[in-house]
Amino acid sequence: xxxxxxxxxxxxxxxxxxxxxxxxxxxxxxxxxxxxxxxxxxxxxxxxxxxxxxxxxxxxxxxxxxxxxxxxxxxxxxxxxxxxxxxxxxxxxxxxxxxxxxxxxxxxxxxxxxxxxxxxxxxxxxxxxxxxxxxxxxxxxxxxxxxxxxxxxxxxxxxxxxxxxxxxxxxxxxxxxxxxxxxxxxxxxxxxxxxxxxxxxxxxxxxxxxxxxxxxxxxxxxxxxxxxxxxxxxxxxxxxxxxxxxxxxxxx
Length: 252
Ligand SMILES: NC(=O)c1ccc[n+]([C@@H]2O[C@H](COP(=O)([O-])OP(=O)(O)OC[C@H]3O[C@@H](n4cnc5c(N)ncnc54)[C@H](OP(=O)(O)O)[C@@H]3O)[C@@H](O)[C@H]2O)c1
Description:
- By secondary structure, the chain is α/β, with parallel strands linked by helices.
- It is 44% helix and 15% strand.
- A 7-stranded parallel sheet has the order 3-2-1-4-5-6-7, sandwiched between helices.
- NADP nicotinamide-adenine-dinucleotide phosphate binds next to helix 1, strand 2 and helix 4.
């Protein structure tokens, strides 16, 4: 029962595609009631319907995590419909590539506002309920770029390093309320976000050689860490980032 998440209400942002979608389905298959999110209302509804057809518990709310007013409105609706959230997974994120010296401020801000400030906005609206109940879990989806830089993705790496520190800062303030705040750092997984990479044969071969596991990750391989962090099994784990990266951050 240590890893049981049955009946938990779990909001996972950015869950209409990619890692978020696979993680949401995995959580729902473990008996959680998942609250899906993305910016496109039709896509959100489509994914909710596909979950319901599989007999999974799901609902969905479309909002942009970087727009505070929009998030606040939708969060009020979520709490009205479902009551307080047990687990929040801050997963929504974007990538924008280019040489750092040519990055436009507007593009820099877009990445930071989504990947870092978005997690702050959503969490701050949910945390009051968790503090009141003295129970809750926040899981931030970081990246191996929380630790390692790479040319052409400076705003992304900066945002993910910031999210790692935000995870620690949240733990420093909120662990005393019996709230566990932790992070997962995925390595390389094939999704829309990494399409430019997995379509590039040279990158694909570099990655497989550079990763001790010698391959890309399968999104389902993130589920073990996620279920651990969402369940009572992690009740004394706080402020940690668990890398699920085939060993990439462990070696040069
Ligand atoms: N794929 C990887 O290898 C990898 C590695 C390390 C970390 N990550 C992290 O894992 C997370 C998911 O990545 P992914 O690869 O699954 O990306 P993805 O395939 O591009 O999916 C991103 C999801 O987030 C939603 N989204 C984007 N911006 C949003 C916003 N402002 N508000 C609400 N929803 C938003 C998208 O839906 P809409 O566009 O319809 O809004 C989509 O559902 C990201 O935080 C990413 O940085 C991924």
